[in-house]
Structure formats: C-alpha cells, structure tokens
Amino acid sequence: MTLDKKYFNEVREELLGYAAKRRGVIKETGDAQHMAKKAIFAMQRDGTKEAGDLLLQAEKILLDLNVKNKKDPGIFEEGSYKAALEEYIEAYLFNQYLQKKTIGKLSKIKVDPDIFISGLCDVPGELLRYAIKSATEKKYEEVKRCRVAADEIIGELVDMNLTGYNRQKFDQAKQALNKLEQVLYEVSLRS
C-alpha cells in the first residue's frame, strides 16, 4: 500500500495553516474582548471618552479579523470569536443606552441574531450595576430609566422563545430585572 504523499502534504498544510490562523484569531479576539470589558468598566464610572476609544479599538480588531478571514468562514465559528463579539455587543448596546440613543442595531459589524441576543441579554446586568451606582448618587430618575430599559429588553426577549445558551442568558437578564425592581422599590421608600 502506498499513500498519495502529495495529497497528504496538502491536507497537512491546510490543517497547520488553519491551526496557526486560529491561534492568531484567539489572541486578537482576546484583545477585542478585553477592550470591550474595559469599555464597560469605564462606562460604569462615567468615563465616556475612554469607553468610546476602547469600543473603537475593539471594533477595529473585529472588523480587521472579518476582512482577514473572509475566505476562511470556519474561523467565525470559533468560541473565542463569538465571545469577543458578544462582549462587544454588550458594550456597544450599553453605550447606546448611556448616550440616550435607541438600543438597537450595530452600525459597522454585522452579527448573527443569536450572538446579538446573547450580548443583549447581558445589558440588564449592566443596567442593574448602573442603577445601583445612580441610587448611591441619589440620581433616582436614572434608576427609573434603567428599570424601564431593562423591562423593554425583557419584553422583547420574552417573545423570542429562546432555547439553549440564550435561554440561560435570558433567565439571567430576568434576574437582573427583578433585582433592579428591588433597587427601585428601596429607592422609592427613601425618596
């Protein structure tokens, strides 16, 4: 029995090439995810300019990855890529809320609905943290605005019949809304 060495070399090169590309994607998406997390952290501390700069950096990394890997769509199914996108979406949508814009579509990055929903499900948790900060600063109208936004998000998600991972994320979003309602109740007792 003899092997087709030329064919096996082609297979080996393709697999090794993909593995190298994957390692690069994992590193770059890790950077994008880290910047999105830092952007959220800055937003929670009213660091609007810093958050905007970090969001732009994360967006640039993700857009560059999309261009570089256009011919290799399997890369976009990697967990690290999806996690970075999810974190970016959460940061982007939370920033929309803080800028008093309509929470909705991303302007430059096209994402699958499942990943968009995953990121959206994390926003009520950020709204809860922001409401607690606002309550300690006696900004009670902002606490109410956070609750209204979280309620609207849950209202949209409840009609989507989510399953699997997004169902778990939805349940976490509902828990954040419940806690937000508790914060609002406690604030109403003090004001």
From TrEMBL:
Pfam families assigned: Translin (PF01997)
GO molecular function ontology, one term from the record: sequence-specific DNA binding
Source species, domain of life: Bacteria
UniProt-listed SUPFAM superfamilies: Translin (SSF74784)
Signal peptide range: none
InterPro entries cross-referenced by the UniProt entry: Translin_fam, Translin_sf
UniProt-listed PANTHER family: TRANSLIN AND TRANSLIN ASSOCIATED PROTEIN X
Entry protein name: Haloacid dehalogenase
Organism: Candidatus Magasanikbacteria bacterium RIFOXYD1_FULL_40_23
Taxonomic path: Bacteria, Candidatus Magasanikiibacteriota
